[in-house]
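User: Could you walk me through two proteins back to back? I'd like the raw sequence and the structure tokens for each, with a short line separating them so I can tell where one ends and the next begins.

Assistant: Of course. Protein one, sequence then structure:
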Amino acid sequence: MVQRRKISYATQTELGTKAWDIFMSLVATTRKLGISFFEYMHDRILQLGDIPCLGNIIREKSSSNPFGWSWLPE
């Protein structure tokens, strides 16, 4: 990602940098969860509600694969 940012002459503002980081985080998270980033964004922009919130998907997947006592809710 750093190389891509350098090639595109970086972002112009701090807000642009934050937006870039958020989108790259969403791309990585959706990829790890096996969800299409573009379908996820389409669902969110049109407010279809077909794809659950990423937090809910992560909680659901983590509940089926417990990571030990340190991950248990308080």
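----
Protein two, same layout:
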Amino acid sequence: MLKIENLTLTTREKLLEEVNAEFELGSAYGLVAPNGSGKTTLLRVLAGLTKAEAGRIYLEEDNEVLDLVSSRKKIFYYETSDWLDRHLSAWDYLQFVNEKWADGKVDIEEIIKYWDLSDFVKLPIRKYSLGMKQKTVLAMYAVSNTNYWLMDEPMNGLDEANQKRFTGFMEESKKRGTCIIFSSHQNDSLHSISDKIYYISNKKLSDTAREKQEDYD
């Protein structure tokens, strides 16, 4: 279980104040908030890329408490396809992630087939469309074989067929015990397979829906 205790986030202004939440294995969680309210910053903190002003984030497994540094290989986060080096290929990234996170134990070819990457997997990323880049990023999550996935707007750039493919991917990953935490828009189609939706409002994290949808558009 990934736990947040009394977390406070501040960048140029305070985004979250004394937030608490728990994320269990085999479950999916959505983060919904207006732009600039702290969704991406929270994911960065959970990934260990950004420090919180106050509070604590840790993993609890078999009654043992693990900090984020010692748990790094249990968590995978790749914020956006904009991070991809245009001179490398999907194949380069999948090999790297498989080696560094999964210790080479994942069948890359099987994942390439699932995400239909074969036609371009060894081409330089500068030749990819947005959808091809996004499928590469999602394939990286599968290759990581980690317990916790942190995803920022994971369906960005996907057409309808690949959105359905991704929904199936989420469902199967949950069954295998993966914990998935993703940011999304209000009434995102992924909410139907989510175990809990957290709403960021007034610097708090709540699993109670707001009445006014326009607050999250």
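The chain has a mean pLDDT of 88.

Let me know if you want the two compared in more detail.
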